[in-house]
């Protein structure tokens, strides 16, 4: 597939992914690569953005790139550290800031005749986050914007499409940052803004057809957004040669197996539901340590999946719903070694399966996957489903797992989730679930003293699951749902609500 694109060189800034998000929101495809692992530059690359960094260009081991490889060949935009790097390597000076600038600043002086700043308003707010400042620039660097305390807030190298900005246009606090990025990618780089969900679907299906041909693909589905969208794309490309497997590990939500299976069948997928509950319960018997439970579940899943995959004759490919954040190589701040994040959801391909891997979503962010899913006509029940961990209820039952505990938690969880939907709260929280605690508490029902289980309810708001806040659910809802749970689920006499944020807590309890 040839798609015009912007290359983002990552120097380790916390905001690098945001630059990519903003560029893609302009319907321009872009890829992030570590500054020390630059791919061969094809004709599709229309411009390069150099990210920020927690490092200083004055450090002996500061991350560097050979800018001559790009300059004069294509437009360049340095953001924060990227701008300092350009100035520093061209004979300018970068010094520790007299006043450290973190937070909001105003571009008091700006040259709106310059294409990069076209349309920006005087005193437009920008977001600064730097300990170093460019204190002087070479003669051929034209200063095009300043703030009260930073003279070189933006520059252009004369007669070249090479630009640097000290602030971060990618964060929303830079109120016209998106306009600046648009000026760069559209007007300066000449990108045509034709990368849309529709064009992604069309080219991906064509690519998959060509890549897979008449081969067979096997894929495990989980009911989640990523695997469902990935499978639908592969299905559109190769039809019944895609064999989907959906495993009931006995740790799913109440009725989830049946309802998800039905919606997959409705989508026309060639899907087989496999009831492996007993196998999983057996593997989990007596295990209490969360990691031991995760490992047992991962191992059992591979056994079941491998067995099922071997029933299909002549399979060559394994389809996976891997998404972009799982594959972006993150630049480690200490030293140039680049590490690849391990995949959270899929235990990885066991070597003995020897299948080629196809991952149609490995260039998309989560919200882009949802948009593609919508374009493909997937139902909201799949697209808007809360994230659910691979090990399922096993990590929401603290301590050992038994079928009876799973049953209790499924009942509680179903009342809770349905309640959230009934009150119109489900779409407002990022993830919610119930946790069965390994303790009992005293209660009184009628005239009788009870000594029964305690459940905790958890609901969080989040953007990506990396950080999260506890959701401030209305008291009336919590009161109703607590009543309903205690009245309807036998064996539970107390409900508590988790008010911990992440960090320092995590979303799951195990
Ligand atoms: P934590 O608990 O780390 O969770 O704040 C962040 C997100 O990851 C999910 N999670 C998992 N997903 N396998 C998964 O597939 C796991 O072992 C696992 N542990 C946590 C969690 O539900 C949340 O969405």
Could you please describe the fold and organization of this structure?
- 30% of the residues lie in helices and 27% in strands.
- The protein is globular and about 85 Å long.
- It has helices spanning 16-25, 81-89, 177-188, 197-212, 225-238, 256-266, 277-284, 290-310, 324-327, 366-375, 380-383, 403-422, 475-488, and strands at residues 5-10, 29-34, 45-50, 76-79, 93-107, 109-110, 124-136, 141-146, 154-157, 162-165, 216-221, 242-248, 271-275, 315-319, 329-331, 338-340, 356-358, 431-445, 448-462, 468-470, 492-497.
- The strands form five sheets. Strands 2-1-3-4-10-9-8-6 form an eight-stranded mixed β-sheet.
- With 510 residues, the protein is α/β, with parallel strands linked by helices.
- The chain has three domains: 5-188, Rossmann fold; 197-383, HUPs (Rossmann fold), CATH 3.40.50; 398-497, GMP Synthetase, Chain A, domain 3 (2-Layer Sandwich), CATH 3.30.300.
- The chain binds xanthosine-5'-monophosphate (XMP).
- Xanthosine-5'-monophosphate is lined by residues 294, 344-345, 387, 389-391, 431, 465, 502, 506-508.
- Keywords: ATP-binding, Glutamine amidotransferase, GMP biosynthesis, Ligase, Nucleotide-binding, Purine biosynthesis.
- It is an enzyme of class 6 (ligase).
- ATP binds at residues 222-228.
- The active site is at residues 80, 168, 170.
- Homodimer.
Task: Map the helices and strands.
Layout: E1 5-10, H1 16-25, E2 29-34, E3 45-50, E4 76-79, H2 81-89, E5 93-107, E6 109-110, E7 124-136, E8 141-146, E9 154-157, E10 162-165, H3 177-188, H4 197-212, E11 216-221, H5 225-238, E12 242-248, H6 256-266, E13 271-275, H7 277-284, H8 290-310, E14 315-319, H9 324-327, E15 329-331, E16 338-340, E17 356-358, H10 366-375, H11 380-383, H12 403-422, E18 431-445, E19 448-462, E20 468-470, H13 475-488, E21 492-497
Parallel strand pairs: 1-2, 1-3, 3-4, 4-10, 11-12, 11-14, 12-13, 14-17, 19-21
Antiparallel strand pairs: 5-7, 6-8, 8-9, 9-10, 15-16, 18-19, 19-20
Helix pairs in contact: 4-5, 4-10, 5-10, 7-8, 12-13
The site of xanthosine-5'-monophosphate (XMP) has 13 residues, from loops.
């Amino acid at each position: 597939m040839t798609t015009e694109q912007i290359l983002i060189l990552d120097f380790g800034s916390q905001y690098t992914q945001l630059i990519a998000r903003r560029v893609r929101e302009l319907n321009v495809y872009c890829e992030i690569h570590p500054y020390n692992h630059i791919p061969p530059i094809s004709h599709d690359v229309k411009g390069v953005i150099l990210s920020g960094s927690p490092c200083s260009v004055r450090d002996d081991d500061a991350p560097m790139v050979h800018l001559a490889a790009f300059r004069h060949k294509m437009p360049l935009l340095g953001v924060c550290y990227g701008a300092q790097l350009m100035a520093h390597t061209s004979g300018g000076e970068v010094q520790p800031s007299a006043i450290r600038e973190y937070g909001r600043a105003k571009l008091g002086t700006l040259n709106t005749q310059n294409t990069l700043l076209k349309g920006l308003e005087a005193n437009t707010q920008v977001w600064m986050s730097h300990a170093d400042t460019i204190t002087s620039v070479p003669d051929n660097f034209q200063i095009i914007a300043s703030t009260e305390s930073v003279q070189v807030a933006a520059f252009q190298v004369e007669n070249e499409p090479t630009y640097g900005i000290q602030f971060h246009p990618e964060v929303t606090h830079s109120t016209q940052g998106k306009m600046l990025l648009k000026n760069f990618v559209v007007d300066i780089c000449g990108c045509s803004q034709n990368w849309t969900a529709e064009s992604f679907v069309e080219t991906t299906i064509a690519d998959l057809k060509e890549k897979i041909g008449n081969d067979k693909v096997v894929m495990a589905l989980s009911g989640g957004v990523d695997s469902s969208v990935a499978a639908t794309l592969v299905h559109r490309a190769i039809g019944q040669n895609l064999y989907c497997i959906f495993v009931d590990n006995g740790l799913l939500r109440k009725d989830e197996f049946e309802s998800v299976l039905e919606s997959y069948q409705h989508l026309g997928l060639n899907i087989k539901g496999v009831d492996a509950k007993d196998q999983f319960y057996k593997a989990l018997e007596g295990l209490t340590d969360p990691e031991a439970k995760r490992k047992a579940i991962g191992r059992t899943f591979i056994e079941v999946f491998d067995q099922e995959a071997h029933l299909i004759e002549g399979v060559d490919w394994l389809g996976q719903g891997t998404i972009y954040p799982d594959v972006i190589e993150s630049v480690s701040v200490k030293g140039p070694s680049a590490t690849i994040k391990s995949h959270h959801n899929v235990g990885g391909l066991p070597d003995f399966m020897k299948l080629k891997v196809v991952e149609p979503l490995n260039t998309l962010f989560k919200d882009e996957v949802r948009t593609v899913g919508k374009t493909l006509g997937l139902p909201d029940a799949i697209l808007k489903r809360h994230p659910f961990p691979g090990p399922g209820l096993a990590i929401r039952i603290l301590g050992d797992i038994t079928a009876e505990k799973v049953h209790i938690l499924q009942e509680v969880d179903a009342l809770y989730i349905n309640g959230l939907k009934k009150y119109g709260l489900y779409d407002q929280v990022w993830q919610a679930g119930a946790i069965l605690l390994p303790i009992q508490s005293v209660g009184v029902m009628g005239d009788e003293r009870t000594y029964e289980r305690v459940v905790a309810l958890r609901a969080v708001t989040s953007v990506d699951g990396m950080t999260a806040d506890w959701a401030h659910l209305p008291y009336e809802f919590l009161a109703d749902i607590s009543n309903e749970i205690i009245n309807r689920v036998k064996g539970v006499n107390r409900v508590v609500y988790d008010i911990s944020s992440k960090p320092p807590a995590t979303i799951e309890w195990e």
